[in-house]
Specification:
Blueprint: H1 2-15, H2 67-75, H3 83-103, H4 112-134, H5 137-144, H6 154-171, H7 180-199, H8 207-227, H9 233-240, H10 244-253, E1 263-264, E2 270-271, H11 284-301, H12 306-316, H13 326-333, H14 337-351, H15 354-357
Antiparallel strand pairs: 1-2
Helix pairs in contact: 1-3, 1-4, 3-4, 5-6, 5-7, 6-7, 8-10, 9-10, 12-14, 13-14
Length: 367
């Protein structure tokens, strides 16, 4: 039974267009016609040795500076398949999966005389899978082109689409009668759109919400053509069968962040961030006034005793900006809370005296 399957797979493989290009290998020759190696030369310092640029740029054979062009050239070497060839490859893949299941099945290892046959079928199935994948890579490229300019690079879209193509090869059922490209298109599109939902946005939005945002965008475009104006949230809500509040919420989710470095104007001399006020920035005039106030306060505190000045500084947070309670100050000086209150009251009375308060009247009203 297995031998018969192997014979059928061999015949199918021979009829398939798989072939490998073989080229002559270049032999290594000597450096002169006499066959003698060139004489060794010492290192000679030349004027061009200080140059930063290399005299000759070494490139890999066939490679260019455009990775997309290289990729398209590479996948274009594999011929497209017709319906019969797709079915043949699918049968070989199915036989390979069957062999893998037998080799690693829980029912027990196969007979020794069948192990080699199963291993051959498994390897042939892997080769058929790779051939079916490589022959349809151009389908991924054609579908990925439709999603460019939406936040993901072209090669990234192709990569995600290839993952969907692999899934399609694994799930393809040739017995249904439809072409593989028809079946694979859905899987490729799903892989690309899911990747865009997860990766294309700066702030990730769940996939189901991305679908709602896209649906809202389609309805907005259609109603703009029908009405000749932008639709109101109420009109969109009626069309989408949701509340106007939900429409406004979805519209907020669909907004894209704007970089603060976005250039403005034709010359690009300014950026968007230049127009945004820094709410935490200190006004220069206020900073100067605050500095002068600090100097005046400290000059007044110098007229008090060390304990009185310390209590006032801690009470109002003049040092670190954190006001202390009476209990906290009492622990610092080793006295009771009541004693600190008395010192504070006495000190504030001294500060209100015209001899001291007159200096601060331009900044504070102590009355």
């Amino acid at each position: 039974m297995v031998a018969q399957s192997r014979t059928e797979v061999k015949n199918s493989a021979e009829s398939s267009p798989e072939s490998a290009d073989a080229g002559p290998e270049a032999g290594a020759g000597t450096s002169s016609d006499t066959g003698q190696p060139p004489p060794e030369e010492g290192f000679v310092l030349a004027e061009g040795d200080d140059a930063d640029e290399p005299e000759q740029q070494v490139l890999v054979a066939g490679a260019t500076a455009d990775p997309v062009k290289d990729y398209l050239k590479l996948i274009g070497r594999v011929s497209l398949l017709n319906a019969e060839q797709e079915v043949d490859l699918a049968k070989r893949i199915e036989a390979g999966l069957f062999a893998v299941e037998k080799l690693g099945g829980e029912s027990g290892a196969p007979a020794e005389d069948l192990v080699a046959e199963y291993e051959w079928l498994a390897e042939d199935g892997r080769q058929a899978k790779n051939h079916l994948l490589e022959a349809n890579l151009r389908l991924v490229v054609s579908l990925a082109k439709r999603y460019t300019g939406r936040g993901m690079g072209f090669l990234d879209l192709i990569q995600e689409g290839n993952l969907g193509l692999i899934r399609a090869v694994e799930k393809f059922d040739y017995s249904k009668g439809y072409k593989f490209s028809t079946y694979a298109t859905w899987w490729i599109r799903q892989a690309i759109t899911r990747a865009m939902a997860d990766q294309a946005r700066t702030i990730r939005i769940p996939v189901h919400m991305v679908e709602v945002i896209n649906k809202l965008a389609r309805v907005q475009r259609q109603m703009l053509q029908d009405l000749g104006r932008s639709a109101t949230p109420e009109e969109l809500a009626k069309e989408l069968d949701m509340t106007p509040e939900k429409v406004v919420e979805v519209q907020k989710y669909g907004r894209e962040p704007i970089s603060l470095h976005t250039p403005l104007g034709d010359d690009g001399g300014s950026e968007f961030g230049d127009l945004i006020e820094d709410s935490e920035a200190v006004v220069p005039a206020d900073a100067v006034a605050f500095r002068l106030l600090q100097e005046q306060v400290y000059s007044v505190l110098e007229t008090l005793s060390e304990r009185e000045a310390g209590v006032v500084s801690l009470r109002f947070g003049l040092g670190d900006g954190q006001p202390k309670t009476l209990d906290e100050i009492g622990k610092v000086y080793g006295v009771t809370r009541e004693r600190i209150r008395q010192i504070e009251s006495k000190t504030m009375s001294k500060l209100r005296h015209p001899s001291r308060s007159q200096v601060l009247r331009d900044y504070l009203d102590l009355t």
